[in-house]
Amino acid sequence: xxxxxxSSTFGWLAGALLAxxxxxxxxxxxxPPKAPPTPEEKSKxxxxxxxxxxxxxxxAVDLFTMxxxxxxxxxxxxxxxxxxxxxxxxxxxxxxxxxxxxKSFDEYAKNPPYFGAIIGRYGNRIGKGQFKIxxxxxxxxxxxxxxxxxxxxxxxxxxxxxxxxxxxxxxxxVIFTYTSKDGEEGFPGNLQTRVTYTLTDKNxxxxxxxxxxxxxxxxxxxxxxxxxxxGDGNGDVLGHxxxxxxxxxxxxxxxxxxxxxxxxxxxxxxxxxxxVKLADRVNVxxxxxxxxxxxxxxxxxxxxxxxxxLAARVSEPSTRRVMEVHTTEPGVQFYTGNFLDDTxxxxxxxxxxxxxxxxxxxxxxxxxxxxxxxxSTVLRPGEEYNxxxxxxxxxx
Length: 396
Ligand code: BGC
Prior knowledge:
- This protein is mainly beta and 396 residues long.
- 9% of the residues lie in helices and 36% in strands.
- It has helices at 7-22, 39-42, 105-108, 279-282, 287-292; strands spanning 46-54, 60-67, 73-77, 83-89, 95-97, 118-119, 125-126, 130-133, 136-139, 148-149, 162-167, 171-180, 191-200, 204-213, 217-218, 222-223, 241-244, 246-250, 263-264, 276-277, 296-301, 309-316, 321-327, 331-335, 359-363, 378-379, 385-395.
- A hairpin with a 4-residue loop joins β22 and β23 (321-327).
- The protein starts with 6 loop residues before the first helix and ends with a strand.
- The site of beta-D-glucopyranose (BGC) has 10 residues, from β24.
- Beta-D-glucopyranose (BGC) binds at residues 113-114, 124, 150, 256, 296, 333, 335, 339, 361.
């Protein structure tokens, strides 16, 4: 590993912080402007760190800014691993933020839509907030009607992770680690968790997830970034074109718990095997779409072999941005921002509209701990949970 931080960036930030203190500001700005890169830095992958905020218990939280050799930029905090900004070039080379987010650290400390966060210990829903392993029943806090969503009341999106930044010849990133205690949010076993964010100079942003446990438990980790490839806050994503490499999906009941069936997408609004404009699918008269208020469903990926598989491809015609998702996971939750409304303090300055962003959350299927026909999410002592997802950005 080379120098972790560029000294010019550090010096500039220190100066900015001193100036802020002298002016009597008690809180650092949420997303501090970057130091101008030196000519040498411009052709390298770099990372810098700045204070981001303080939790009510006094814990200080940082913001890491990763920039690759092409100028693509990722900002992520060690609070929930939240990605607060992702700057990606368009067809003309102009770089714009393509993820949704909030105005300040205090807003992120609540973050009702889970913008940009690591989700765990169990991503998506567990029906009735309970499950069994080896005949022992575990009860979880219910935070979504009668069900548990995204790991409970204080999931992995609301904890402070240890963060270790790294810079390499062809990439830059942060290793986030967190130990979830036995019994935390009702889950059994001390879970040692590691999530590595890597930005490569090929404009790939990858997430490597790893976990081990000392008691049998369930694990389903994912990343909850909301994208608008036309630019953050730039209206809805209904004009985006989606291809999802899935022959099947898992239908749900009205509380969005899978029925347990795995059904063909043929002749349903969930057939994205050929490129489809989202507008053609979210407003159709279909019971499943009504349950989700749009698409909020798990797609069963065509994956036949271990390793990374292409899960989805998204393109945005006006900017020509393209995003591809590769994953080792068997499913992807395609969520079309159906619950977004104008109550959020959107960082874009104007309210996020319904369908103002989309998520492609690679994962095991929702409610797997209670669904015997779904691939298992049980992790036992001595086993390793390993999962990888790569978002690749390009233009067409
Ligand atoms: C779920 C949605 C939920 C959203 C925000 C998605 O993963 O599938 O139902 O509203 O996260 O919590």
